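Justification of resources, computational component.

The compute hours requested in this renewal are based largely on the per-chain cost of generating structure records like the one below. Each record pairs the submitted sequence with a full C-alpha cell output. That output is archived, and it is also reused by downstream analysis tasks.
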Amino acid sequence: MKTKTGGGGHQQLYDPSNGRYVSVNSNDVFETYAYGRNRIKTQREDELHNSLLEWVNQEMIKLKRGMSNREIRKFNTATIVYDYKTGKKYFGRNGWDQIEQPINEELNRILKPITDSKYLFGNCAEVQAINSAMIDGSELKYLRMITINTYKGLFGKYKQACESCTEAFKGRISKNYSGWSGEEIKQWKK
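The structure output for this chain reads:
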C-alpha cells in the first residue's frame, strides 16, 4: 500500500493490487473507494449497524422455525465484520455449540494460547464472524467489527468483546465500534 495526502488534508492509502483507495476522515470513518468500475460503496458505522439488525431479524425467523424457545434464548449476541478492502460483510452469532466451518489456520494460532488457559471460544459471535472473513481470504488488519445484544430489552445496543476476544483481536483488527473489555461502554447513537 502507498500513502498520500488527499484533498482536505486526509490520508489516503492506495492498494495497487486491487486499484482501491482507502481514506480516513476526521470522524475516523474509513471510506473505501476506487476509480472506474472497481468502486465500492462506503460502509459507515450506522450502515453496518443497520445491516447487522436486518441479519439478526432474519436469523431469528430461521431459528423460530426449527428450535425451542430455550435454544433461541441462547442467541443473545450478534457480530458483523466488514472488510473495508473488499467491501464484504460477515456475520456471526453466539448460541451455537461449535464453529460451523473449519477454523482458519492463522486464527487458530491466535486463539490457541488463549483457549488453553481459558474457556473455549465456541460461543463467541466475534470468532464466528472473523473466522468466516478469514476463510474467505480477509486479512485481520482490514476488518472492522460491531457486536450487539439481541435480548429483547437490550436489542441493538452495543456489546463489548469479552476478555478473551479482546485479548485475541485488540490491536489486530482495524476497529471495534462496540468496544473492548475494560473500556467505557459505547452507546449506539441513532
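The chain has a mean pLDDT of 76. Residues 45-176 form a domain with the Cytidine Deaminase; domain 2 fold (CATH 3.40.140.10).
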